[in-house]
Structure formats: structure tokens, C-alpha cells
Amino acid sequence: MSAILITAPAQEPLSLAEAKAFLRVEHEADDGLIASLIAAARLAVEGETRRALLSQEWRLVRDAWPQSGRIAVTPAPLTAVTAARVYDEAGAAHTVDAQAFIVDAARAALAFAPWSLPAPGRAVAGIEIDVAVGYGEDADDVPEPLRQAIRMLVAHWYDNRGVVAAEGRTLPRGVAALIAPYRMVSL
Fold it and tell me: Checking CA distances to 157, which of 21, 41, 50, 102 falls within 20 to 30 Å?
């Protein structure tokens, strides 16, 4: 199953002013750099945790309905199904009622009765489900440890603009410790 970003978050979980205050930067010469570091830090935290920090819309693409009647959704947290389609043999899309899916937010999964849904007519990418994910629309909706991880990454990257050896780690230890409770692990 693949997931495709449809709608990115409208803002970042950390404003430019907040980042500059944390960095103790009072000039405007590095505003573009700091803004790009904020976006990169959000993406790094989202990638490591497999969570969407702010509201986003993603499209899940599947070949067939799973017999189990469950589809795990990443990134989490899952908030809603916004649309669903099944493609026939000719490639025409047919709408599936979003009410056919139960959002299991605790498990970041969709539950449904697979026998009640139309089978896709094409063998590859015959099913598309659009989902809303994220903690909320505003930066204040993001858990504070994840916002602090972003602050720390921005500061680390601002101070170390070249390639820095990670000694086998992808994130600095303090950042990794902050995001550890939020990581979604695969079994």
C-alpha cells in the first residue's frame, strides 16, 4: 500500500518568530534559512515518528480490500475518511460511501466489512481512500515534546550548516529522546 500526500499542512508547528527567539537571532538576514530549517525539522520528526503533526490529507492506494477488514493508516493520528473510490476495468472511478469505514483512532486504522464494498476492476491501484490525519490545525495542537524536538533540530542545523557525522544516529540524542514516546513502530 502506498500513501500520497494530497494536502500539506497550512502552517508549520513552529513560527519563524518562535524559532528566532529560541535561536536568539535578532536580524532578518537568515529568515529564509530558518524557515526552511523549520520545514525540514517538521519533516524529519514526522518521518521518524510516522505521525502528521498538523492537519494533512493523504491518499491510500491499494490493489484489493484486505480480508481482515482493517487497513493500518500512516501517518497517524487518523481523524477521518474524506473520500473513497474504486476503479472498474475501464479505469472509471466509482465513489464508495465514506460512512462504510469506521475510524479506529487509537490504532490508526480503518475498519470495514470487506464483503460489503465493491471489488476493484483493475488489478493495480484499484482502490483509493483519502484520509485526514494530524493533531489539529494549529501549532498549539501539536504535543509540546514534538515542538521542542523541532526547536532543537532547527538550532542544531542552524549551528552546524555542514554535514555532521551522526555516529550511526539519524537525530541528535536529545531529539531522539523527545520523540521516542511518539514513534509508531512496525512489528
Answer: 50
